[in-house]
Design a protein that fits this description.
elongated; disordered N terminus; mainly alpha; two-stranded antiparallel ribbon; 6 strands
Length: 282
C-alpha cells in the first residue's frame, strides 16, 4: 500500500507560496522589460547621433574642431531636451489611482470613493471615471491612454502632455539628424568604397526614416485625439466603455471644442474630477 497515494499534491499554504512566486517572477519580468526598453532607446539614439556626429565630414564634428559654438548651441540642447522629455514621460507617475490600503491621506481617499461608481476587480477598489487597469503596470491609471512599451510606462493623465512634447522634439531631432546624414555622405563611383565611407550613415538613415515615420504618425494621431477630447483607449474601445455607449461613435461628453480641449490638456495640471462633470450634464 502506497502511503503517499491519498496525500494532497498541494496544501493551501503551498498554493499561496506558488502564487507569490509566480507573482514575483512576473514582476521581475516586467521590471526587466521596462529597463530594457529604456536602455534600448538610449543606446539606439546614441548610436545614431554619435554615428553621424563623429563622422569627420559632419558639420557637428567640424564645429567641435573649429569651436563653432552656434552649430552646437542649436543641436546639443535639442538632443538634451529630447532625452529629458523621454525619461520624464517614462519615469514619472502616469496617474496611478492610489491603493486605498496604502493611502494615508483621508481627503484623497474620500475623493476617490465619492467620485466614482466603477469598480476594478484586480485592484479590488473603486475606479475613477476615464481610468483603466493596466495589466503591465498592475495599477489603475487615470485618464488612461495606452501602455507604451517604448517608454516602459503607461501614458495617462499626469504624463500625457510630456509624451506629446517628447514626440514633437523627437520628430525635430530626427529631421535634423537626417539632414546631417545627407550632408555628411561622400560621393563615390565604386560601390565598395561608397559603403566604406557611408555604411554607418546608411544604417543611421534607415533607422531615422523608420523611426521618423512611426513618431510622426503617432504624433498626428494623438494630436487628432487631443483636439476631439479623446484618449486612445476611448477611441478604440468606444463601443465597450460604459460611459460612452450612449454617445455616437464620433462624439464624446469630454469634447469642449478644439481650443478648450487643448487648453485643458496642456494647462490643467491638477487631477480632474470627470465624474462630477458627467453628473453636471444629466
Amino acid at each position: 500500500m502506497d502511503p503517499f497515494r491519498d496525500r494532497p499534491l498541494k496544501t493551501p499554504n503551498m498554493q499561496l507560496v506558488l502564487e507569490e512566486r509566480s507573482h514575483d517572477k512576473d514582476a521581475k519580468r516586467k521590471f526587466y522589460v521596462r529597463v530594457g526598453a529604456r536602455l534600448g532607446h538610449t543606446c539606439l539614439s546614441l548610436f545614431v547621433i554619435l554615428g553621424i556626429c563623429l563622422n569627420p565630414n559632419s558639420s557637428i564634428y567640424q564645429a567641435i574642431l573649429h569651436r563653432d559654438y552656434f552649430e552646437l548651441v542649436v543641436f546639443v540642447p535639442l538632443v538634451c531636451i529630447a532625452f529629458m522629455l523621454y525619461f520624464v514621460a517614462s519615469l514619472m507617475n502616469p496617474g496611478f489611482v492610489p491603493i486605498l490600503e496604502e493611502e494615508n491621506d483621508a481627503d484623497q481617499t474620500t475623493l476617490i470613493k465619492s467620485e466614482t461608481a466603477y469598480y476594478c476587480r484586480w485592484c479590488d477598489q473603486s475606479q475613477p471615471l476615464r481610468s483603466k487597469h493596466c495589466r503591465e503596470c498592475n495599477r489603475c491609471v487615470r485618464r488612461f491612454d495606452h501602455h507604451c512599451p517604448w517608454l516602459g510606462n503607461c501614458v495617462g493623465e499626469r504624463n500625457h502632455r510630456f509624451f506629446i512634447i517628447f514626440l514633437f522634439f523627437e520628430d525635430v531631432l530626427i529631421l535634423r539628424c537626417l539632414q546631417l546624414a545627407w550632408e555628411t555622405g561622400r560621393e563615390s563611383h565604386e560601390l565598395l568604397e561608397w559603403l566604406k565611407y557611408n555604411g554607418i550613415l546608411l544604417i543611421c538613415g534607415i533607422i531615422l526614416i523608420l523611426g521618423g515615420l512611426a513618431v510622426t504618425a503617432l504624433f498626428c494621431c494623438h494630436l487628432y485625439l487631443i483636439l476631439h477630447g479623446l484618449t486612445t483607449w476611448e477611441h478604440v474601445s468606444h463601443h465597450k466603455i460604459t460611459y460612452l455607449k450612449k454617445w455616437p461613435e464620433d462624439s464624446t461628453p469630454f469634447n469642449f471644442g478644439y481650443c478648450k480641449n487643448c487648453w485643458v490638456f496642456c494647462c490643467y495640471c491638477s487631477i480632474q474630477n470627470w465624474e462630477k462633470y458627467i453628473r453636471s450634464l444629466t
